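Hey, I was hoping to borrow your eyes for a little while. A protein chain has come my way and I'm curious about its shape. Take your time with it, there's no hurry, and the full record follows here:
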Amino acid sequence: MRDKMDLVVKSAVFRHVVFWALYITYELAFYHINSGTRAPVIHFVVFYLLNIGLFYFNAHVILDFAFFRTRLRFMNSAALIILELTIYLFVKYVLDNMISGIEGTPGVVKFTKQYSSYSIWRGLYFIGLSIAYWSMIYMEHFRERNHRITAEQLRTKAENLELENRIITVENAFLKNQISPHLLFNTLNFIYNDVYHKSERAGEGVMLLSELMRYSLVSGDSHDQVPLSDEIRQVENLIRLCRLRFGDQVFFNFRRKGKLTGIKVIPLIFVTLVENMIKHGDIGEESCPATVELIRMDDELIFRTSNPKGSSLPSVRTGLGLKNLEKRLHNAYENRYRFEIADLGDIFSAAIYLKI
C-alpha cells in the first residue's frame, strides 16, 4: 500500500515538473522571438520560482483556507487574493532591485505605474492559472466523493435488502417450525390416551413430559417474566417425572420457606438447575438425598440445589446449560442477582439469589 502511494506521489511530481518545463520553454521562446533580447539567467530563475510559488501558495493555502475553513468563501477568497497580490508586488519589487544590484546597476528599478501594472497583471496571470488548477483538482475530488457516497448508499441498500431477506427467511422458518410443536403435542396426547388405559403410571409420565415440553417451548425464548408458581409447578413436574422413571431409587427433598406469592421470574431458570442436578448428580443416595430449596427472605429470593456427585441419570433436557443460564440472568437482572456454583468434594451445589 505504501509503495503504491509513493508511486502516485512520484507520478504527480513528474507531471508537474514536465508541465513547468514545457511552459517555461514556451514562454522563453516566445519572449526571445518577439523581443530579440536576452536577459540574465538569474532573472528568469528568480522570477519563475516566485511565480510558481505564487501559483501553489494560492491553490493550496489561500483557496483551501477560504473554501474549506470559512463560511463566506468567495468574499474571503477575494480579500485574501488581494492581500496576496499586494505582498507579491512588494516581494517582486525588492527582488528586482536586488537583481539590479547584482548586475551592477543598483536602484534602477522605479515603482512606476507601468511597472506596477505589469507586475499586477503577471501576478493575476499566475493566480488565474492557480484557480484553474485548483478547480480541476477539487472537481475530481468532489466527483470521487460523490462516487463514494453513491457506492455507500448502494451498499447500504444492498445490506438492507439482505437483512430483509434474512428476516423473511427466519420468519418462514419460524412459521414452519410451528408445525413441529403442534404435531408433537398432538402425538403425545394420542400416546397418553392410548397408554393411560394400559398403564396409569406410563400415562402420567407422558402427561408430565408433554407439560414440561410445552412450558419449555412456549417460555424458553421469552424475555417476559412468569409467575413463580408456574416455575415451581414445572420443577415439581420434573421431579415427579424422575420419580416415575426410577421409583424408590430416587431421593429428593424439596423445601419451601417464606411468602412466595406475587413474585415473577424469568422462565426455566430454576428448572434448569434441577435438570442439571438430575442429569449429572447422584440422586439415588438415601443417606444423602438431593435437596432443592426455595426461600424468600425479605426482598431476596433464593433457589438452591445440592446433590452428591456420581452417576448421571439422564432426563428431560431444556437445551439450556449453566452458562446460558447465567447469561439469561445477567440480561434480565443485571446487578440484581448472584449465581453461585460450589464443588465441595463429593457434593455439588448451585444457587441463584434474586432481588425482588
Observations:
- The chain has two domains: 2-159, 225-355.
- Strands lie at 226-227, 252-257, 264-265, 290-297, 300-308, 337-344, 347-355.
